Amino acid sequence: MPRDFRQAVNDLDKERLQLLYGRWDPLEPAAFAALTTASPPVRWHVAGGRAARVGAEPRHHDDTDIAIAMADLRRLRLAFADWHLWEANDGALRPLLPGVPLTETCEQLWARRDADHPWQLDLLLDRASSETEWIFKRDHSVRLPWDQAAQTVAGIRYLRPEIALLHKARLDRPKDRADLAAARLDPVGRAWLVATLERLGHDDWARRARDGERGAASGG
Q1: Res 5: pLDDT
Q2: The whole model's pTM is what?
Q3: Buried (b) or exposed (e) across 55-76, using 16+ Cβ within 10 A?
Q4: Rounded mean pLDDT for each run of 10 residues along the chain, 220 residues in total
Q5: CA–CA separation, 209 vs 193, rounded Å?
Q6: pLDDT at position 18, please?
Q7: Do 48 and 65 contact (CB within 8 A), yes or no?
Q8: Sheet of 150-153: strands edge to edge?
Q9: pLDDT of residue 190
């Protein structure tokens, strides 16, 4: 779809988005983990704002972003055979019916029990990363071994905050800037984020991340 349409959808506030697509009642990460326990293994991790805020002051989240290895899509569909999966592609929703292949350009699925229930999962299909490395989908030269890109907290695997924040820099919404300001980054992670933001041309975010380092050092 045209870029201006995609931008219009991204700019919708929560109320207008739910009026257009239906309401959300996101599952917590632990609830998603419980749903996949008895199924064939699916490689997944928590992304988005929940990952950016690990160890920091929490905030309300309108959805739960779960990143799935693209190679595990078939396993995911088996695990959620009793759910309704919809392609969320360029601002449009399309049911991913049993036996129907995924649209080639689709990188996101929404999931709900059925039409009488709210949306509960925002599933991000990771086409870029490998079994050994996280690879940034917008620039494949930006990559890290998984043991540096993800962490396990209370039995749940999350993207490290600096990785989640890198994904948010392009969107640059108020909640993304709030996540950057609140994030608890260790010195190595913050230095990597600043350098990568500068390399990719997100100079304002690089400055904000650098300012956050000074605030942390001063106890602010």
Answers
A1: 47
A2: 0.87
A3: eeeeeeeebbbbbbbbebbebb
A4: 50 75 90 82 93 94 92 92 93 91 94 95 95 96 98 96 97 94 96 98 97 55
A5: 8
A6: 78
A7: yes
A8: 92-95, 84-89, 108-112, 119-126, 65-69, 44-46, 156-159, 150-153
A9: 97
For residue 85, give Cα distances in angstroms to 41, 62, 79, 82. 18, 18, 11, 9
- Which among 108, 38, 125 has a CA at the least distance from the CA of 79? 38
Structure tokens given for 63: 């959805």
DSSP 126: E
- Strand ranges for the chain from DSSP E: 44-46, 65-69, 84-89, 92-95, 108-112, 119-126, 133-135, 143-145, 150-153, 156-159
Instruction: Output the six-digit token pair for 128.
Output: 């870029």
Nearest to 69 by CA among 150, 124, 32, 22: 124
CATH architecture of 3-160: 2-Layer Sandwich (3.30)
What are the domain boundaries of the chain?
Answer: 3-160
